[in-house]
Write a structure and sequence with these properties.
Helix content: 55-70%
Radius of gyration: 20 Å
Number of domains: 1
Keywords: Membrane, Transmembrane, Transmembrane helix
Number of helices: 2
Low-confidence stretches: none
Shape: elongated
Length: 68
């Protein structure tokens, strides 16, 4: 009697080291920064909008260098 075992799956990278999901998160941060910048209601959101935009942009630049 022979027991067949399937090959082990390839080691996947952790979520925070995958290019696709992290690019989506960075894009969402950039979009959130724009929404915060152009909303007329809360000064706190306007105050933090540039920081959010820059964080998303820097994150996108870094993550776009990750391998597929």
């Amino acid at each position: 009697m022979t027991v067949e075992t399937s090959p082990l799956p390839k080691n996947k990278r952790p979520f925070f080291l995958r290019r696709g999901p992290m690019e989506n998160i960075a894009t969402a941060l950039i979009a959130l920064g724009f929404l915060m910048l152009f909303q007329p209601f809360a000064l706190v959101l306007y105050t933090w909008s540039l920081v959010t935009l820059l964080a998303g942009t820097v994150m996108f630049i870094i993550v776009s260098k990750f391998p597929e």
